[in-house]
Amino acid sequence: MSATAVPLPAEWRDFFALTKPRVMSLVIFTAICGLIAAPVRIHPVLAFTAILCIAVAAGGAAALNMWWEADLDAGMKRTAKRPLPAGRMDATSARDFGIALSVASVAVMGLAIGWLAAVLLAVSIVYYAVVYTIWLKPRTPQNIVIGGGAGAFPPLIGWVAATGHITWMPVLLFAIIFFWTPPHFWALALFVQSDYAKVGIPMLPVVAGEAATRRQILIYAVLLLPLSLAPWWIGGTGLVYAVSAAVLSIGFVVLAARVGLRRRAGAEDRMRPEKQLFAYSILYLFALFAALVADRWLVGQG
After folding, report:
1. Close Cβ partners of 62 (under 8 Å, ≥ 6 residues apart)
2. Is-contact 53 109, C-beta < 8 A?
3. Residues whose CB falls within 8 Å of the CB of residue 204, separated by 6 or more in sequence, listed in order
4. pTM
5. What is the pLDDT of residue 11?
């Protein structure tokens, strides 16, 4: 939970790094898409407030994650330069920063937008910072499967912030990200598995081996294909989204098949299909939710 290096005075950049800005960009984008896709329009100031609360909450949960995993991060090449393991910040500052962001985001969401959205926001923080980080990640190779729910909340919360209630449409958006997360993250885990093995994190490639991980990646990619089309099947979107989802998801399955059907993995520098799938998976989610917004805009114009 604490870094071994003697902490130096932290700069604002270190606090910003605690929020995992790269991850936050995806959180903000999917939340905005969920809010825009909702059939209710809210005042722009309230919409901005809702998205800001979601972003701040994500940053708070990320800071708590980094606080708890500082020692683990110090042992992995990919994370050793983060503020805590690098000794640029003390653990107490990181913890208090994460708690402050989390509490403030939930309070403002409840007072300005609505308490259902605030409750969902609080659940998402606890899910990531406690259920995933503290409980699941160090104990089970299915950590990323169950923990994937943490990253699936933003479009659901965005939708609820606009409408004030939950329907099947935001639940499906939640489910899409939930099923997208395992193949996305396992593709990364395949070419950084030595890091996880070194610090004793039971990621699937470490515990079950590469062959089992590759099969699971393909299975989840195949399941994601019909799920991505479900918003259209229930009448929640038009053909713009349906066609985009079909093309994007077929591409996802093709790349996942290249990973899943490989007999043996090569050295890290030869894991090109895995790296391609990981990069495509990020593009996939951005493009899929952009198509959702484009579809809603075209329907609204019509």
Report:
1. 18, 19, 20, 23, 24, 98, 128
2. yes
3. 141, 142, 144, 186, 189, 212, 213, 216
4. 0.89
5. 82
